[in-house]
Amino acid sequence: MLINKLFFKAYQIKYLFKWIDVLGIFQYLKLISNLQSDSEFLELKLKSYTSTIYLRPKTSDFKIFKQIFIAEEYNVTYPNQVETIIDAGSNCGYSIVYFKNKFKDAKIIAIEPDHSNIKMIRKNTQNLTNVELLEGGVWYKDSDLNILNKNAGKWAFRVVEAKKDEGEFKGVSINTIVKQFNLESIDLLKIDIEGTEKIIFENNVQPWLSVTSFGFLELHENYEPGVTKLIHKILKSENFKISYSGENLVFSK
């Protein structure tokens, strides 16, 4: 039974040795054996990371952990200088941990709407400095928002605009974030917001995109047909180079 878990829970056998390299064999076996446990969270120590990382069993945390720390979808060539990072759709905070480990002096502004994810972000970043956490959703303007698909997993929430003062949480535009934190530039912008990227790129994108030099964008064509073509067109019009790393579109100047 344990052998089956070892090979099949890893999802892709080609990453088995990477798992063992990052976690060590005993910690990896413990993780795989407890993915369906009733524990509130599992504690993990990663090679080359000083902070403990927490993972919730029976959630998408395992998938996100694999994408970031094992498949290393953010392991690309970055600009020479990264001082300011906006992380839109931070989920449980693994992307924050990854970027902070790579750019230790960078300021990270993280945005996430889900309360339980916010709790995990705080837990996963408790020993990190210069991290600002906004509880809300990224939107094309400042507005009240509601969750559109409440039965979706916590990694797949989609949002819709609500009437004033009737929303479940606040929506904030990237332009507002730039003004609020007096940002002269966005050196790294990560957007993973389950289809909302379409309405954001359709509205007043030039001010914040003009001060952005590099970014990751996960496109959700299944939710918003045509979003890939739209964003490719906009990014190319702003002279960005486009490539892909895993599920992420990577854009750079």
TrEMBL record:
<dbReference type="InterPro" id="IPR006342">
    <property type="entry name" value="FkbM_mtfrase"/>
</dbReference>
<keyword id="KW-0808">Transferase</keyword>
<dbReference type="Pfam" id="PF05050">
    <property type="entry name" value="Methyltransf_21"/>
</dbReference>
<protein>
    <submittedName>
        <fullName>FkbM family methyltransferase</fullName>
    </submittedName>
</protein>
<feature type="domain" description="Methyltransferase FkbM">
    <location>
        <begin position="87"/>
        <end position="223"/>
    </location>
</feature>
<dbReference type="GO" id="GO:0032259">
    <property type="term" value="P:methylation"/>
</dbReference>
<dbReference type="GO" id="GO:0008168">
    <property type="term" value="F:methyltransferase activity"/>
</dbReference>
<dbReference type="InterPro" id="IPR029063">
    <property type="entry name" value="SAM-dependent_MTases_sf"/>
</dbReference>
<keyword id="KW-0489">Methyltransferase</keyword>
